Amino acid sequence: MAVTIVDVARRAGVSISTVSKYINGGNVIEPKRSEIIKAIDELGFVVNPFARGMKTQKTNTIGVLIPGMTEYFGTTLLSHLNKYFYSKNYTVVTCDYKFDEHGTNAREKIDFLVRNCVDGIIMQPDAFKPDEVDTAIRANIPLVVVDLEDDLKRFDSVVLNNEELAYKAIMKFIEKGHKKIAIVSGYPNATTTIERVAGYKKALRENGITVNNDYIFLGKHLEIRGHELMEKIMNMPENIRPTAVFFAGNLVMIGALMYLKENNISVPEEISIIGMENLAASRLFTPTVTIATQPMELFAEAAADLLLTRIDKAYIGDKRTVFLNAKFVEGESIKDLSDK
């Protein structure tokens, strides 16, 4: 026979309402709190979130949706979200979704989270498709998106100041005398890509450097793509080949570094590099790579705070956007051409 809240209250020597208060995250003072914890452990009591949700309209569960469990941004975000929500007495239910040339199954995963009565959802969209989140909207479940704004401005979001990031990266090359500078970024129509290309062009134009569209490489952030693009760049005639490349993505940067290592191409003597996100990978490469790191813990905390204020109805206004700034960790991957 299943252990009930009544059994826990009897064993702990407290009222049923006191046990209920503890289970639902309320403040129970000592020694009652310790007696309840002891009784729960001894009896093996397990909270039924759905039964609790019938009374409180909450299950204390958060759905987190990321595009793949091997992708650096998503898995790092997930780690910080788990830690943060645990401190708030919430459990995280994680879903990853596939994305390829045929589309995604994000809608299917959101439907699953809604059926399981999560209190809110945090989503890292690969490319925002409005119909993917219809189920959450109909169920009135708060949703926060990270790393990409909702163009329809329906949801709170936490995003990087992408234009400033790219501008600063390109300025680092220009300050070292580089003029033939390439950028490798994501999907052409993604907000993050549009903003990063804007920052790239702004830095060039402010310094009287003509924008060469042949130096702008857009597409999916994949390791194999970084490998192929680095091969393409290094095989360009020397007189038109870029002297520097900003890789605005983790996997494409790793693929490019692999190609350079496999072919004994010297960095920065033959090509200068600035990468993004994966500091550990950049430190393993010799020489170390200058890299833009995203504040992942702040991403998680900001997204969680936005979501919790919606869940608790502490905020019911228009959608909010939190902008965060990248931090550059200097390496030795930029050659000084200022005297040439």
Task: Give a structural overview.
The chain has 340 residues and is α/β, with parallel strands linked by helices. It contains 13 helices and 14 strands. Helix 1 crosses helix 2 (16-23), helix 1 crosses helix 3 (32-43) and helix 5 crosses helix 13. The radius of gyration is 25 Å and the shape is elongated.
Brief summary:
The protein has 340 residues and is an alpha/beta fold. The protein contains 13 helices and 14 strands. A 6-stranded parallel β-sheet has the order 2-1-5-6-7-13, with helices on both faces.
Roughly how many Å is the radius of gyration?
Answer: 25 Å
Distance between the termini: 82 Å
**How large a portion of the residues is in β-strands, by DSSP E?**
15-25%
Task: Flag low-confidence runs.
Answer: none
- Give the rounded overall mean pLDDT: 88
* Lateral arrangement of strands in the main beta sheet: 2-1-5-6-7-13
Tally of helical segments: 13
Q: What general outline do the C-alpha atoms trace? A: elongated
Order of helices and strands: HHHHEHEEEHEHEEHEHEHEHEHEHEE
Number of strands: 14
The major beta sheet can be summarized as: 6 strands, parallel
**Helix content estimate:** 40-55%
Oligomer category: single chain
Question: Structural class given helices, strands, pairing?
Answer: alpha/beta
